[in-house]
């Protein structure tokens, strides 16, 4: 077979399942968020592992993801967070029993037509904007939503959702309380006219830090994959210890010794101040190892940290292995994870990158994956 994938992603679905169990006591009824290919970890194996430990509700991003998941989990409730975008989405929700979010008035005709062709009512979830200014009906527009529901008895609302904007920031707890108050009012207004629905607002951070925002369903996402949603804040210890589910490695192509004054990589942004040994790792920005990590990040080589030297290239990155004399070409460098205490966490890599663990997982997870 011709072909060589240098960067390899190793995913442990059982670690995701273990994190679910660690978080379970924090909530009441949890919805596993597996959108965007389970944050780069692999939709089907992750969802199946979660189902084995009791998860029964799953939130995907697109309806297309929901169709893929339905084939693997025929009995689960599958929720499409982005809702119905066109007629094909509507038909898929009807045919595969996927529950779409309805977020704006333009979606009513699509869900009505799909429901009219079904032998049973079409389940939907109502999405309200309580402060994110993203998807959702205006929180003051409950009366209009009720009117639309009454005009479409073939639709069966099963829940009401909103989304928190600042749950991971202890300094912004007041806004979490404000959004909680708004969803409470929406839920009460719907109940007053005959639509008594469970509500869901809490993401991973709110699950562990804002019990008043729990409502009836909670939606853990990033925490399932081993990242503490409150890392680096005063509330970091409110999250139970979690297990990282993703490890990313790449092979070392060459090891070379350089003398003082020798520059490394494009732009000569790094020059050796002493005799050094460097390793050239087969990973770069073409593999989603960002150029923004230049001279900031580290990899794990030979069980210890090896700082990135100079600029990250398209498919190669130089690291300092002066303190790793046994390193040879063909050895593996760890971009994420690694053995023992030297392991690089998603939070660390995100900080060097200038981003968040969500992006780290989603981008690196696009490389070839192996289940472990």
Any chance you could write out the topology, listing elements then pairs?
Blueprint: E1 8-11, H1 13-24, E2 29-30, E3 32-33, H2 35-40, H3 43-52, E4 57-60, H4 63-72, E5 77-80, H5 87-96, E6 98-102, H6 108-116, E7 122-129, E8 137-138, H7 142-150, E9 155-161, H8 173-192, E10 199-202, H9 204-209, E11 217-218, E12 246-258, E13 263-264, E14 270-271, E15 276-281, E16 298-301, E17 304-309, E18 317-320, E19 332-336, H10 346-353, H11 357-364, E20 369-371
Parallel strand pairs: 1-20, 2-11, 3-4, 4-5, 5-6, 6-7, 7-8, 7-9, 9-10, 10-11
Antiparallel strand pairs: 1-12, 12-15, 12-19, 13-14, 15-18, 16-17, 17-18
Average predicted local confidence, pLDDT: 96
| Structural class by SSE content | alpha/beta
Report the end-to-end length measured between terminal Cα atoms: 23 Å
Largest sheet: 10 strands, parallel
Description of the molecule:
With 372 residues, this protein is an alpha/beta fold. It folds into two domains: 13-229, Alpha-Beta Barrel (TIM Barrel); 246-371, Lyase, Ornithine Decarboxylase, Chain A, domain 1 (Beta Barrel). It has helices at 13-24, 35-40, 43-52, 63-72, 87-96, 108-116, 142-150, 173-192, 204-209, 346-353, 357-364; strands at residues 8-11, 29-30, 32-33, 57-60, 77-80, 98-102, 122-129, 137-138, 155-161, 199-202, 217-218, 246-258, 263-264, 270-271, 276-281, 298-301, 304-309, 317-320, 332-336, 369-371. Strands 2, 3, 4, 5, 6, 7, 8, 9, 10 and 11 form a ten-stranded parallel beta sheet that branches. Strands 1, 12, 15, 16, 17, 18, 19 and 20 form an eight-stranded mixed beta sheet that branches. A hairpin with a 5-residue loop joins strand 13 (263-264) and strand 14. The two termini are 23 Å apart.
């Amino acid at each position: 077979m011709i072909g060589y994938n240098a960067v390899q992603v190793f995913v442990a679905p059982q670690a995701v399942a273990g994190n679910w169990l660690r978080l379970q006591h924090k909530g009441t009824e949890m919805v596993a968020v597996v959108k965007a290919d389970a944050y780069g970890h692999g939709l089907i194996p992750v969802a199946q592992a979660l189902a084995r430990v009791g998860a029964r509700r799953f939130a995907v991003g697109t309806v297309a993801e929901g169709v893929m998941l339905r084939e693997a989990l025929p009995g689960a409730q599958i929720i499409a967070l982005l809702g119905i975008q066109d007629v094909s989405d509507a038909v898929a929700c009807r045919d595969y029993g996927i529950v779409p979010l309805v977020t704006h008035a333009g979606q009513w005709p699509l869900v009505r037509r799909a429901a009219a062709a079904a032998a049973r009512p079409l389940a939907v979830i109502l999405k309200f904007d309580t402060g994110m200014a993203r998807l959702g009906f205006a929180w003051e527009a409950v009366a209009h939503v009720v009117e639309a529901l009454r005009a479409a008895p073939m639709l069966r609302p099963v829940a009401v959702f909103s989304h928190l904007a600042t749950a991971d920031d202890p300094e912004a707890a007041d806004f979490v309380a404000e959004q909680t108050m708004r969803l409470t009012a929406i839920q009460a207004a719907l109940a007053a006219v005959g639509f008594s629905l469970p509500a869901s607002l809490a993401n991973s951070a709110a699950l562990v830090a804002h019990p008043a925002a729990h409502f009836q369903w909670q939606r853990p996402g990033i925490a399932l994959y081993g990242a503490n949603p409150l890392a680096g804040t005063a509330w970091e210890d409110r999250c139970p210890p979690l297990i990282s589910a993703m490890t990313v490695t790449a092979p070392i192509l060459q090891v070379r010794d350089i003398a003082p004054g020798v520059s490394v990589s494009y732009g000569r942004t790094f020059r050796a101040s002493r005799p050094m040994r460097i390793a050239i790792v087969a990973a770069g920005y073409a593999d989603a190892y960002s150029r923004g990590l230049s001279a900031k990040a580290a990899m794990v080589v030979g069980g210890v940290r090896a700082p990135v030297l100079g600029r990250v290239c398209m498919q190669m990155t130089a690291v300092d292995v002066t303190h790793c004399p046994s390193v040879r070409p063909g050895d593996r460098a760890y971009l994420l994870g690694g053995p023992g205490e030297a392991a690089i966490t998603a939070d660390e890599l995100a900080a060097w990158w200038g981003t968040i663990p969500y992006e780290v997982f989603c981008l690196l997870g696009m490389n070839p994956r192996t289940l472990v």
